[in-house]
Design a protein that fits this description.
With 255 residues, the protein is an alpha/beta fold. It has a single domain, classed as Purple Acid Phosphatase, chain A, domain 2 (4-Layer Sandwich). Helix content is 29%, strand content 20%. It contains seven helices and twelve strands. Strand 7 and strand 8 form a beta hairpin. The longest helix is centred in the first third of the chain and has 14 residues. Bound molecules: manganese (II) ion. Manganese (II) ion binds next to helix 3. The site of manganese (II) ion has 6 residues, from helix 3.
Length: 255
């Protein structure tokens, strides 16, 4: 028997400083699916236009009672370490121009403490469950499963040059796993018709793509356009994912 819950859940891909798109997508989800639980795939602040807006938006949504949190992305881990060093007076010559810019923007809006709060909580959440989905930033090792994948890999995993991404060979043994980290033009979904195995929901918003949510119980995707698209219109639209056939190795085949 399928276990059902009355509370719907969604996973939103890498935000990367796209605050306006985050607000829009969360608002659309809340309006259409009241009480929805939302997990972000991480990489919250870097690259995009408005990291301060992301910190404020997440804080404001939570204060308004929205169930919203994020798993830890490699950029969150790096930004957190950098902010801790900076806030404890540890000066380093290796702080990049982008990092100095992030610090000064957060300082100008008095958001360093709020950012430390947000990131310290986020780096603690390497993986989380929402509905039937397990969410990690980068993915898992298909042959090792969720429990056998290291924390480092869940945050940083990248396919070696020429190798297929993890989702192509994951056989669904540990249920549905949702990730971001690797931008794709349209979201990726593997599995069969009534059961997804793997989803990549990072549709490159900071690079002019979309910010996308995967609604777990409906097995559907909802996207809002990047505000870097000049003709963008407000309001989300459903998108059809790339449905990748899982290339599960034959039983007994050594891999
Ligand atoms: Mn990443």
């Amino acid at each position: 028997m399928k276990i059902t819950t009355n509370i719907p859940s969604a996973v939103i891909g890498d935000v990367h400083g796209c605050a306006e798109e985050l607000r829009e997508l969360v608002e659309v989800l809340q309006e259409t699916r009241p009480g929805i639980r939302i997990v972000l795939t991480g990489d919250l602040l870097t690259k995009g236009p408005d990291p301060c807006g992301v910190v404020r938006s997440i804080r404001d949504f939570r204060q308004a009672g929205v169930d919203l949190n994020s798993v830890c992305g490699n950029q969150d881990l790096r930004a957190f370490a950098m902010l801790v060093r900076q806030s404890t007076g540890f000066k380093t010559a290796t702080t990049s121009k982008a990092d100095r810019s992030l610090i000064s923007r957060l300082e100008a809006e008095d958001l360093i403490p709020a950012t430390l709060d947000l990131l310290s909580e986020t780096v603690d959440r390497v993986q989380t469950k929402v509905g039937s989905a397990t969410v990690v930033h980068a993915g898992i090792r298909p042959e090792a499963g969720i429990a056998g994948t290291t924390t480092h890999d869940k945050i940083h995993l990248k396919a070696a040059g020429g190798a297929p991404p993890w989702w192509q060979t994951y056989d669904g043994r540990d249920g549905l796993v949702v990730c971001g980290h690797r931008p794709v033009e349209v979201p990726v979904r593997t599995g069969d018709a009534d059961q997804a195995f793997a989803v990549n929901v990072d549709t490159g918003c900071a690079g002019g793509g979309h910010l996308t949510a995967y609604v777990v119980e409906e097995d559907t995707f909802l996207s809002v356009e990047s505000r870097q698209i000049p003709s963008r219109h407000r309001g989300g639209h459903e998108v059809v994912p790339v449905r990748v056939e899982s290339k599960v190795p034959d039983a007994g085949l050594s891999v």
